[in-house]
Amino acid sequence: MLAPVVHILPLTKIRRDRLLPVPGKVLVRRGQKVSTTDVIAESSLNPEHLLLNIARGLGLPEEKADQYLQCKAGMRVTEGDVLAGPVGMAKRVVRAPKSGKVIIAGGGQILLELEALPHEIKAGMPGTVVHLMDELGAAIETTGALIQGVWGNGHLEFGLMYVLMNSPDDIFTPERLDVSLRGSIILGGYCNQPEALKSAANLPMRALILSSMDAALIPLAERIRIPIMVIEGFGQRPMNSAAFKLLTTNERREVAVNAQAWDPFTGNRPEIVIPLPANVDPPLPQDTEQFSAGQQVRLIRAPYQGSLGTIVEIRQGVSPFPNGISAPAAEIQLESGEKTTVPLVNLEVLA
Amino acid sequence: MSTSLIDADSVLAIDIGSITTRVALFDVVDGRYRYLASGSAQSTINAPYNDISEGMRTALDRLQTVTGRVLIDADERLIIPSTAEGAGVDIVAATISAGPPLSVVVIGLLEDITLESARRVVSTTYAKIVDSLSLNDRRRAEERLDAIIRLRPDLVMVAGGTDGGASQSILKLLEAVGLAMHLLPEGHRPQILFAGNQALRDEIKATFGKLAPLHFASNVRPTLENEQLESAQFQLARIARHARSQQINGVKELDNWAGGGLLPTSTAFSRVIRFLSKVYDSTKGVLGIDVGSSATSIAASFEGNLVNRVYPQLGLGHGLKEFLSVTTLHSITRWLHVDLHDDDVRHYIHNKALYPASLPVTMDELAMEQALAQQAMQVSIRKASSSFPEKVMRYGPDVSPWFEPIVALGSVLTRSPNLPQTLLMLLDGLQPTGVTTLVLDQNHLAPSLGAVAAINPLMVVQVLESNTFLTLGSVISPVGVARPGTPILRIRMAYEGGAETSLEIKQGSIEVLQLPAGQSAQLHIQPLHRFDVGMGGPGRGGRLRVVGGALGVVVDARGRPLHLPHDPTLRRESIAKWRWMVGC
After folding, report:
1. Which residue, of A70, A86, B157, B558, is most buried by count of CB atoms within 10 Å of its CB?
2. Structural domains in chain B?
3. Where do the domains of chain A lie, and which CATH numbers do they carry?
């Protein structure tokens, strides 16, 4: 059976495509070193427009207004520029209310695309541009540790990581924050207090990594402008031991937090990259696996959610569970030594 | 046995769900079409595969193993048509529900009339309305334009203007769409479905024909009083198929196998339900419900008139994130028989949305999963019933009309630990009235039969007659008013062998009368206190023949609509008692 894969790796090669949703301009070149927040490509994704009724502005019928146009499609105009006119004794004119680009001029109307900040695609991690995709973006490659999560609020940042967790089941509270942490990335635990998220944003911290979060905080976390990334899920869940060990042993290193939303279709997941030098070029991680004995797995559902274990055996046929459900399953040896049977669909392979 | 009496084409049905890909083989046995076997595999629509072919081929491999019939050749290609050696199949019927919902902007003149009709059309497939434009829209033209560019819909559905009626207002509303088409890069432009004033066809063609794929359907509102959705629904299903084949690798190949007949699963499912409504008791409707991962779908047909609704926000997969936008947490927790905190349920919803293929293995998680299914069914039937014909809503807007039968599918129902749990989910979620039969499509065959119907209707008839679906049982649900504990029904069941069982049913109870599958019995029903069981009016009873199902005959006298006790402890006790009564 095909196995879903989650990456929690101490050292690997990481390659990520950073692509615009619509064609635009690529700003990097092949071989260029980039940092996490460097812009790879930009485009005018959601520009605002103004539709100006020239005929009305000039006090003329539509068919006559066009002969007084002083601009044409494609022209850049700045606020106050005359777009049409003058007309009559009063020398009536229509001026550009804002700076922008003329998209359509005719039929008594002008459509103006207002100047706006371009939509930018950032590198998301420090690395090297290894491949360019025309008008769309580039592939970035680096080596380092990679820890994937399950939820993110859409922002990304790079900075020094400080650990506020003493154990995988620690709770992140606002009292644990002070000004000395300003500008850093914090490894917190389980968060169920809105004040904790607000304090982290107000300090401000660079980013917040949580083991788990109360689902009621999702709307607040989505409004907050610093990256917030959740590794395990919702409700009080301890951080899995592999991620906890990897993150705590890399305290005070620079880490990139890309708290992008998990999109199963594209495979994009929220992730932390800790750039590390590698003497030997490590391989790219496996994205596809078949379940087999000996694999390290993460259990994603109760009663062992977040626990790690090793597949001892893939059971033949379907296995019954105490609540009456039957499903193809594997025997798992948990880190505690305990053995349990888990449906295959409740497992992710660590690779 | 000779198969010369019928055109003996073997049929392979393929259904691509967001979690599971299912294949089923039908062929002629003893002169009649039969369902032979199924195979299933994980769907591979998502990364890293992003191609449905992998899942399809695994499912086909499993079907080959089960049947011993070679379906795929050495080059990994499906063998069509079948060979003289018996390899391959003659016809492929394909359905798909996997993939992101189609994002749609609807445009109509009047909010409550044309726009509402357009919304009804969109709700017949896996789609999500992201914006609406009408005469009531107070936004400036450029704001509407910016909205379309920002939302980047897959489809703009245009209704409005009765035939020969308003035209300028519609064209004015379409200005924003026209500008957006000019500004969006090619390949990012939405398709347009025009189902408004037919007098505008030429003008629409001249304006949009070169900008985007353009589709026409009959006016959804040819007059203010008449609504005709069928043509637009048909076009929408085609557009959905086209969009899927653009978005998802492998869909084109599947559509080719199916001779261009790939259908949205919900559309195919609704065809079977409409077919059944022509066969069954014409005084009642036929109801189909599919509680899936992509969506919960309802298909209800009354004398051949179909109401088909798809609710992606009520799917039990990734869509769960939006579940709480259409219902409340309390509406879900009220179905729980175990004491769980609201936060537990909220967390369950969001964690399940992250891992939609995962399974509950604890009692608590199973209770939450089933509560979600019950609420998904409850909200779906309530929403859909606003489109049911007025005459069938005998008991008001909150009580289901009579259906015979009710066909149910979806993994949460078909793979529950036992059939009584499935029964109770259906009774609570749908709250049927009168006398009905609950039927479970354990192998998810109904959509496939719907897809086959256009190619080989005989096969559909014969497979439906061959007990392919599992009859859970006959259900009697009286409607009326009485205090709990008041006798409301007397029932006498006369078995084939001569034995009899008599029972007095009290308000608030649920009873199960044993009647083994395949056996029939005469049921004498006498309602008391003017309760209505759908046998001629309040207080009127009579005799009817019932055929046993897996669970016999069930009398659900808990009231319609079902009012659960407000006190949480009492409520859980009541649910626990009902569970015990039906044998959960």
Report:
1. B157
2. 11-96 (3.30.420.40), 102-247 (3.40.50.280), 266-582 (no CATH)
3. 2-13+142-275 (3.50.30), 49-114 (2.40.50.100), 291-350 (2.30.30.30)
Identify the residue whose tokens are 């349920």.
B345
Residue of A nearest to B20 (CA): A345
Compute the radius of gyration of chain A from its Cα atoms. Answer: 27
* Contact flag B48-A345 (C-beta cutoff 8 Å): no
- Per cent of chain B over pLDDT 90 is 86
Give the best-scoring range by mean pLDDT among B2-6, B461-465, B535-539: B535-539
Measured from the Cβ of residue B433, the count of other Cβ atoms closer than 10 Å reads 25
Facing B350 at nearest CB: one of A23, A215, A302: A215
Q: Which residue of B has its CA nearest to A306?
A: B351
- pTM for the whole structure: 0.94
Q: Which residue has the higher pLDDT, B283 or A20?
A: A20
pLDDT at A116: 87
pLDDT band for position B3 (50/70/90)? very low
Looking at CA atoms only, how far is residue A183 from chain B in angstroms? 30
Residue B133 · residue B144 · CB < 8 Å: yes
C-alpha Rg value of chain B to the nearest Å: 25
Q: Which residues of A touch B45 (CB under 8 A)?
A: 265
Closest chain A residue to B184, measured at CA: A22
**Contacts A21 to B, Cβ<8 Å:** 152
Nearest CA distance, B215 vs chain A (angstrom):
25
- Of A338, A343, A307, which Cα lies nearest the Cα of A322? A343
A19 close to B (CB below 8 A)? no
Burial of A297 (C-beta count, 10 Å sphere; 0-12/13-18/19+): buried
Mind listing the pLDDT tens digit for each residue in A51-86?
999 999 999 988 899 999 999 999 999 999 999 989
